[in-house]
Design brief:
By secondary structure, the protein is an all-alpha fold. It contains 15 helices and no strands.
Length: 296
């Protein structure tokens, strides 16, 4: 299996299933894009496991397969999987740290067990485990290993993970799943089953009281995500613009995260309201402006 065909497979996978990160990667130097596509495709492979299994043991077997594939990659071998082949090339070219991959796999074990975050702190920890290591890997691909850059990246990773769970609420509810924290739901008088019974509609007349209660939970999570975006921006003074431009693509999800927060606010944090997604042309414009101004 050639590196070129593996890269093509990864690029198609990320474009189809993680379009936001695909767009962000397009602003990276061409020499780095192969590495970014490899790590984002790996993330997609392990993130989708919960959707294709019927019991936790099957999920753990698939996660273990990826651990063993990484063993092969780091031993210099050639695993026969398109994403693993691309990862092998990226590890060699960019010296990627194994621990970040292990953290991502460990975080996804929470998914396959069908656990639910007990409280907001648990949701924050989940976002940290399943999103931050990906930002760290992106920084390594972009040749940035400074402590300040990774600290800012952690804030962006957590914010992106939190917003991802809010965006996924309606989709997961149809599958009888939710990542909204149990304690926060209880505070507004709701149980997970109440989330599952909400229907997507333009008006709140359908399950109106439940949607308003969920909006209070969403507002709390959104505020936490915003705090992390502010935390990331507090590091701006640490970076010279000539340096920042090199690894800015790793931070670009923060630009989109801020856009999603704005749309949530506009819709009164109604997680089942149509129009929460940012149109693709607007995403591209936001990212292009951020790159031009060298900001995140």
């Amino acid at each position: 299996m050639s590196a070129e065909s593996a890269l093509s497979f990864c690029t198609d996978l990320v474009r189809a299933h993680d379009y936001d990160r695909y767009l962000c990667a397009m602003f990276a130097p061409e020499t780095a894009r192969a590495g970014l596509m490899a790590i984002y495709a790996f993330n997609q492979e392990i993130a989708k496991i919960r959707d294709v299994i019927s019991e936790p043991v099957s999920g753990h077997i698939r996660l273990q397969w990826w651990r063993e594939a990484l063993d092969t990659v780091y031993a210099g071998g050639n695993p026969q999987h398109q994403v693993a082949v691309a990862l092998g090339d990226a590890v060699k070219r960019f010296g990627l740290g194994r621990s970040h991959f292990d953290c991502l796999i460990d975080g996804r074990a929470f998914d396959v067990e069908d656990q639910r975050p007990r409280n907001l702190a648990a949701l924050e920890s989940y976002a940290d485990a399943t999103s931050t290591p990906l930002v760290s890997l992106a920084l390594e691909v972009l040749a940035e290993r400074g402590a300040a850059a990774h600290a800012a990246g952690r804030h962006i990773g957590i914010a992106w993970g939190l917003i991802g769970q809010l965006r996924a609420t309606a989709y997961l509810a149809r599958k009888k799943r939710t990542f909204l924290p149990l304690e926060e739901l209880s505070k507004v008088g709701l149980a997970p089953d109440d989330v599952f019974n909400v229907r997507l509609s333009r008006h709140r007349s359908s399950s109106g009281d439940t949607r308003k209660a969920l909006a209070r939970v969403a507002k709390e999570i959104a505020a936490l995500a915003n705090d992390h975006l502010i935390g990331a921006r507090n590091f701006r003074s640490e970076f010279k613009k000539k340096t920042l431009v090199r690894f800015l693509p790793a931070y670009l999800p923060g630009i989109l995260a801020n856009g999603y927060l704005g749309r949530l606010h506009w819709h009164d944090h109604d997680l089942f309201a149509p129009g929460l997604e940012i149109p693709r042309p607007l995403k591209l414009t936001r990212l292009a402006v951020a790159v031009m101004l060298k900001r995140f």
